[in-house]
Amino acid sequence: LEITDVLRGKDHLTNTEKQKFIYKYFGWNEPNFIHYGIMSIGSEGKISKSEIKKGIDEGKFTGWDDVHLLTLRALNRRGINPQAIRNYMLNLGIKDVDIEFSEEALYFENKKFIESCFRYFFIEDLLGLTIENFPNMVVRFPLHKEHTYGFRTFDLVPENNKINLLIQKSDAEKLKEGDEIRLMNTCNIRIKKADTTTGRVIADYVENSHGPMVEINGKNGEKKKFHNNIIQFETFGFCRVDKVKDNLIEFYFTQR
């Protein structure tokens, strides 16, 4: 029959014994039988084709690439590198025991391919920050800490010696009057009022506290760009750029 190898699930072990008997009876060369266990996903409907099809028909999923699924199309849309999936499966190997799919192990492999992406800031739950006595300054943020991709540059121009910025609400809730904190790559500020119920934190600029990548009284502009459609939001995680239309950029979360 010129069959050298048979690869199939261990639920066919009984069939294998029957077929071995037939091969032996007719004097045929017996192929190498390899059996593997079942990989369970853990989330019902995330991988079952019939359940996914039903979910699409019912409007539960937008399609086979819905990012809530674990289909190859969905993983690709989220920014999971195909080689990362291949490496994950190769590391698993072929075993005759049942195993459970590990998203964390897949993310570990994927991070090797995306960790060199550009980095930006992300505020999930924003709160206003007013800094008083603020000088005119240009601030540069590296697009990556280890790679020489260049910088994002912001011209911070105060009005009436005040500038309005945004901070994460969960960070603001930890602040109290008199605290001195550092804004990344920018300067130190001293908290004057931290009432998160009003939606704004008031602070003072700490003189001569600006960092090495800050130019006082300079001017420049920011140039937006993305590298391979994958970016990293500082302290949040990696995301894939799915759509860019006018001033709206739509991302899908990839992993932390």
Tell how many strands the DSSP assignment holds: 16
* Low-confidence runs of at least 5 consecutive residues: 217-224
Annotated CATH architecture of the largest domain: Orthogonal Bundle
CATH superfamily of the largest domain: Glutamyl-trna Synthetase, Domain 2
Strand content: 25-35%
User: Into which percent range does the helicity of residues fall?
Assistant: 10-25%
Dominant shape: elongated
Under CATH at level 1, the class of the largest domain stands as Mainly Alpha
Q: Distance between the terminal alpha carbons, to the nearest Å?
A: 50 Å
Short key terms for the protein model shown above:
single chain; 256 residues; alpha/beta; Glutamyl-tRNA Synthetase, domain 2; 2 domains; five-stranded mixed sheet; four-stranded mixed sheet; 6 helices; 22% helix
What this model shows, in words?
The protein has 256 residues and is an alpha/beta fold. The protein folds into two domains: 5-114, Glutamyl-tRNA Synthetase, domain 2; 120-216, no CATH class. It is 22% helix and 34% strand. The chain has six helices and 16 strands. It has helices at 13-26, 49-57, 72-78, 82-92, 103-114, 169-172, and strands spanning 5-9, 32-36, 39-40, 99-100, 118-120, 126-132, 137-142, 151-156, 162-168, 180-183, 187-195, 200-205, 214-216, 230-233, 237-245, 248-255. The strands form five sheets. The chain has a five-stranded mixed beta sheet with strand order 9-6-12-11-10. β15 (237-245) and β16 form a beta hairpin. α4 (82-92) packs across α5 (103-114). The chain is elongated and about 95 Å long. The protein starts with a strand and ends with a strand. Mean pLDDT is 85; it is low at 217-224.
